[in-house]
Amino acid sequence: MADPAQGSPGRARQTLCTFCGVVDQVTVTEDRKVRATGSLGVCVKGAHYFQKHLGAHPEKVARFTSPMLRSPYGWERVSWDYAIDMVADTILTDRQDFGRDALAFYGVGQMTMEALWVTKKFFQGHLGSNNICSNAEQCLANNAGGHELVFGNEGPFSCYDDYRSAEAIFFYGHNPAINHPTVFQRYVRRNRDAVKVVVDPRRTDTVTQLLADNPDNIHLPVRSGSDVLLNLMFARRLLDTGAWDRGYVERHVDQDSAASFLDLLRQGPFSVDEVVPRITPEGMDPAEMRARVERACDLWARRRVVSTSSVGINQTVGSAGVASILNLHLLTGAIGEPGRGHVRMAGQSNASSELALGFSGRLLPFRARVDNPEHRAVMADKWNLPPWRISPRPGLPVASFATSERLRTLFVFGTNPARNFPNLRRWREKMMDLCIVYADSYYNPEILEYADIILPCRTKHETSGIFLNGERRLQYMEPVEEPPFEAWGDVRIVCSVARRIADRLGDQQPPATDGEPSQEDIESWVADGNLDLSGPALDAAFRYPAGPDGEPSGEAIWQEIQQASRGFYNEFIDADGEPITQDRIRSGEGVQWQGERRYVPTPADGDGGAGGDGASGGDGSAHGDGSADGEVPLFSGVFRADRRRARFHLPAAERLVPFQERGRGFVLITGRGAMGTGNAVRRQNTAMFNSSTATGADDWPERNHVYVNPADAERVGLAPGAEAVLRNDLGEIICPVAISEDVPAGHVYLTFHPDRAGTHPNILTSSDNIDPHTWQPLLKDTRVDVLPVAPVAASIPAATARVER
Ligand SMILES: Nc1nc2c(c(=O)[nH]1)N[C@H]1C(S)=C(S)[C@@H](COP(=O)(O)OP(=O)(O)OC[C@H]3O[C@@H](n4cnc5c(=O)[nH]c(N)nc54)[C@H](O)[C@@H]3O)O[C@H]1N2
Ligand SMILES: Nc1nc2c(c(=O)[nH]1)N[C@H]1C(S)=C(S)[C@@H](COP(=O)(O)OP(=O)(O)OC[C@H]3O[C@@H](n4cnc5c(=O)[nH]c(N)nc54)[C@H](O)[C@@H]3O)O[C@H]1N2
Ligand code: SF4
Ligand SMILES: [Mo]
Question: What confidence tens digit (pLDDT) does each residue in 130-171 have?
Fold first, then answer.
C-alpha cells in the first residue's frame, strides 16, 4: 500500500533524480534544499531541476492542469471521469472498426517500471496489439541488440565500479562529461591510472577534460560510421600479435562462430595500413591517427579493460557496432572480473526497464518473442490469459508509424513526438490524421497542434516507482510533494482505462470454441463488437489495492513483475539468487539484479575467476549448446535455463563503410549540448535535457548553431554567424554558423535540444534507415548539403518558402 505520509512535504525525504540512466540518489531537506545522498553526487542538471521545482523560490514551469479534449471550439477542460470515458470509447470503437492493430502505444524511458508493466499487460496481453514501444527504440535499443547478437540476451554484465579498477577505459560515441557527469567525475576521472580512449569524431568536453588530466589519454577522431571497421582492425592486430585469449574463446565461445570470425579477420581488409586511411578525416595526418590507433590497440591487450558505448554507436552502426565492441571482450576474455567488461550507460532513467520489459513491436516482456508460440504461451500464462490472446503478428517499428495504414489511435506517454522523431515533416502530417492521446505533466505547445486528448500526469517529484539503471540497479523513487491539482500517475491512468472498459463489457466472456480459435476467428470477434475481450479478466488484472489518493499500490505491481520474471534470464533476483522485494529496493542504494558482475567463470572453468557463479545460478538444468566437456555454458538465452556459449558477431558489409565514403555532402551529427565555451554554451550544457520540457522554455537559447570545421567553412563560403541552409531529400532547415576545429572536416554538428526559433534537425533524419535487429532509426547516419543562405532571397524563392526550422 502506498504510504500517504511518503509524499508529505515538510520533512526530509530521500528520492532519486530520474533524468538520465545513472539515477542518482538525492535528499530533499526539510527546508526544500537538494542534497546528494548517493555515492555519486548529483550533477548540475539534476540539481537545476529540483532547484527549479522545489527550491526556496520555485519557478513555475507551465503544466497541464486538467484533462483536455480537442473540440471544434478549441481545447475543452473535462473531468477525469469524462476523459477516461472518452479514452475507453476510442479504444473500443477503433478496435471494432479497424482491428487490434489500429492502436499503438509509445512511451518514455522516464516512466516507472510499474507503469511500463501495466501498460504492456493492457496493450499486448488484454487488447492483443503488439504496437507497443518506447523511445528506447530511438536510444538504447541497439545496446540491447548488440548484447543479444553476442550473448543471447540483452542485459549488461558489468557495473560502474569496474571503471575504478580498469587499466584502460574505452568510450565509443559517448560524451559522459556532459551526459553522465556523476559517473564520469567520480568513477572515471578518479581512476587516474587507467588510460582512457575516446572514439568520437568530435573533440567533445569528455576529450578535452581527459586530455587535460593526462596527455597519454587518447582521442580517436574517426569519421562517423567507422567504429565496426576500427574494431575489426583492433581484433586483427590482437590476433596478429598473439595478444588474444585463446583459452577463453575455446571455453566460452561457439566454435563455428569463432572459426568464421577468425577467418574474416585474417582475410578481410582490416590491417592497420588498410583501415587508417579510411577512418582518418581530411586535415588530420594519417601517421598521427596510426600512432594513436596502435597505442589504443595495445590497451585492449591489457588485462583489465572496460568499454562503454552510447548513442554515437546506437544511432550510427547500431547493434552491429555494439556487437563489434563485445567481440573484443570475448576475444580478450575481458569479462566477468572486476575491471573487465562492457558497462552500460543508459540515456533515460528507466530505459533499461523498457528493454527488460520488451518495449518493441517484436518483443514480449523479458525479451520473449512475439513470433514464438512457446514464448506467447508462457507470457499469456503469467498474465492469466488464454494463449491465443497475444497476437502472433509483430507490431510496427516506431519508424514506420508514419506510413502505417493500420494505425488510428496513438497513446503517447511522455516523450515529445513533435520533435524527436525521424523524418519529422512526414510524421507530423501523419499525426494530424491520428487520434493522439497524450499524457505528460508539462505544458508543451508543440504537442497541442497534434494531440486530441491530454491527460495531465504527476511529475517525478510527485510520484513513486521503481527505476532500473544502466548497471542493473533497482531503486525506488519517493514522492517529495503532492501535486498542486488533480494529476494522476501513469499507472492509475492505464488501470482506470482498463477497468472502464471492463465496466462496459460487464460479464462478457469470449465465445467458447473447441480448441484454439484461429486468428480469423479472433478478428471476426473483434469486428462483431470486441467479443474477444473478457470483462472479468480485465477488471481482475487491473484492480490493485489503492492508497487514499487513488493511486494503485506499487508494491502489488512489483510483486507481479518479480513473479512473472521467474525463469527468464533477467529474472529479478539478487546475486544470491534471492527474489528482490520492494522493501529491499527501497532501502539503501537499492539492489542490483544478479549482482555486480555477471558471467563470472567458476574456478572449475580454469579461468581462476573470482567468486562463484552467482550470475548463472548454477541450477544444473543446462541445455542448448553445452561445452564438450560438460561444463555449464556461461550465457543464457531468453530463459535462464537455456544456457549457451557466446557467439562472435559477423557484421554485414554495409556496416563497414564510413559514411563519408557514400558520396557527396556532409555527415550531420545531432547530439546533446552546444560546443565551445562562454556563458550561453555553459548554460545550455547544464540546463538542457532532450526536449527540456521539465525545466521550462526560459532555459532555451534563442537559436542553436551548426558547428562547421574551418576548412569546410572556407570551402563552402561560410563566415561565423552567417546563416546556413542544411538540406537533403527530406527537407531543409536554416541556422546560424559557428566555426570550430572540434568538428572534423566533412561533418557538421547541431544539437537536437530545442531553441526558441523552433529549429528541428529531425526534419533531416531518415525513418527508412533502421537497424535490422532492433528497428532503431540510425539518426546520426544523416547526410546533408550545407550552403550559405543567399544574401538576396531572389535566387531561391521556391526553396525559401519551404524552409522550416
Ligand atoms: N546533459 C544531458 N545529459 C543527458 C541527456 C541530455 O539531453 N542532456 N540525454 C540523456 C539521453 S536520453 C541519452 S541517450 C544520453 C546520450 O549520451 P551520449 O551518447 O553521450 O549523447 P550524444 O551527444 O547524442 O552522442 C554522443 C557522441 O556520439 C558522437 N558520434 C556521432 N557519430 C559517431 C560515430 O559514428 N562514431 C562514434 N564513435 N561517435 C559518434 C557524437 O559526436 C557525440 O559526441 O545522454 C543522457 N544524458
Ligand atoms: N536528431 C536526433 N533525434 C533524437 C536523438 C538524437 O541524438 N538526435 N536522440 C534520441 C534519444 S536518445 C531520445 S532518448 C529521444 C528523447 O526524446 P523524447 O523521447 O521526446 O524524451 P524527452 O525529451 O526526454 O521527453 C521526456 C518527456 O517525458 C515526460 N515525462 C517524464 N517522466 C514521465 C512519466 O513518468 N510519465 C509521463 N507520462 N511523462 C513523463 C517529461 O515531462 C517530458 O516532457 O530523442 C531521440 N531523438
Ligand atoms: S547524472 Fe543523471 S541521474 Fe545523476 S543527477 Fe545528473 S541527470 Fe540526474
Ligand atoms: Mo536517449
Answer: 999 999 999 999 999 999 999 999 989 999 999 999 999 999
Q: Span 214-221, mean pLDDT?
A: 98
CA distance 388 to 377: 8
What does the pLDDT read at residue 608? 42
- Domain shared by 528 and 413, yes or no: yes
pLDDT in tens, 598-623: 999 876 555 443 333 333 333 333 33
Rounded to a whole number of angstroms, the distance between the first and last alpha carbons of the chain is: 48
108 C-alpha to center of ligand 4: Å? Answer: 10
Q: Tell whether pTM > 0.90.
A: yes
**Closest-CA residue to 453 (of 61, 85, 62, 117):** 85
> How many domains does one find in the chain?
2
Please name the residues in contact with 801: beta carbons below 8 A apart, sequence gap of 6 or more.
none
User: Does ligand 3 come within 6 angstroms of the Cβ of 24?
Assistant: yes
Q: The domain that contains 195 carries what CATH number?
A: 3.40.228.10
Q: How far is CA 771 from CA 134, 316, 402, 775, in A?
A: 15, 9, 17, 5
Q: In the structure, what pLDDT confidence band is assigned to residue 799 with cuts at 50, 70 and 90?
A: very low
Residues 326 and 463 in one domain: no
For residue 701, tell me if it sits in a domain: no
Q: Tell which one of 138, 143, 423, 689 to mutate to probe ligand 2, the residue whose CB is within 8 A of the most ligand atoms.
A: 138
Percent of the chain with pLDDT over 70: 93
Mean pLDDT of 360-384: 98
Claim to verify: residue 502 and residue 370 sit in the same structural domain? yes
| DSSP codes of every residue in 171-204 | EES--HHHHSHHHIIIIITT-TTSEEEEE-SS--
Average pLDDT, the chain: 92
Tell me which residue has its CA closest to atom 42 in ligand 1.
202
Which of 349, 371, 397 is the C-terminal boundary of a domain? 349
- Return the sign of the alpha-carbon dihedral for residues 422, 424, 430, 433: positive
Ligand 1 centroid to residue 59 C-alpha, Å: 29
d(CA 769, CA 776): 9
The closest-lying atom of ligand 1 relative to the alpha carbon of residue 749 is 42
The reply to whether 222 and 314 lie within a common domain is yes
CA-nearest residue for atom 37, ligand 2, is: 414
Do 301 and 369 belong together in one domain? Answer: no
Residue whose CA lies nearest to ligand 2 atom number 41: 414
Whether 252 and 187 map to the same domain: the answer is yes
Which residue's alpha carbon is at the smallest distance from atom 6 of ligand 3? 43
Residue scoring higher pLDDT (616 or 407): 407
The pLDDT tens digits of the residues spanning 715-765 come to 999 999 999 999 999 999 999 999 999 999 999 999 999 999 999 999 999
Instruction: Return the pLDDT at 161.
Output: 96
CA of 18 to the centre of ligand 3 (A): 7
Is 749 among the domain residues? Answer: no
**Is 350 close to ligand 2, i.e. is its CB under 6 Å away?**
no
Give residue 54's pLDDT: 83
83 and 118: one domain? Answer: yes
- Shared domain check, 178 and 128: no
Structural domain for 122, as ranges? 68-139+354-554
> Which of 45, 174, 672, 695 for a ligand 3 pocket mutation test, highest count of atoms within 8 Å of Cβ?
45
The rounded Å distance from CA 312 to ligand 1 centre is 6
Q: Is the CB of 748 under 6 A from ligand 2?
A: no
Q: How far is CA 491 from CA 85, 294, 435, 555, in A?
A: 17, 52, 21, 12
Q: What pLDDT, on the 0 to 100 scale, is given for residue 302? A: 97
Phi and psi, residue 151, nearest 5° = -105, -15
- What pLDDT score does 720 carry? 94
Distance CA 347, CA 325 (A): 19
**Does pLDDT of 651 surpass 50?**
yes
**Residue of 350, 398, 415, 764 with the most ligand 2 atoms within 8 Å of its CB, for mutation:** 415
- Within a domain: residue 722? no
Asked if 508 and 126 count as a contact pair (C-beta separation under 8 A), the reply is no
367 belongs to a structural domain: yes
Position in ligand 1 atom list of the atom nearest CA 175? 20
CATH assignment of the domain containing 452: 3.40.50.740
Atom 3 of ligand 2, nearest CA residue: 420
Q: Of 518, 534, 554, at which residue does a domain stop?
A: 554
Which atom of ligand 3 is least distant from the CA of 44?
6
Residue 282 has pLDDT above 60, yes or no: yes
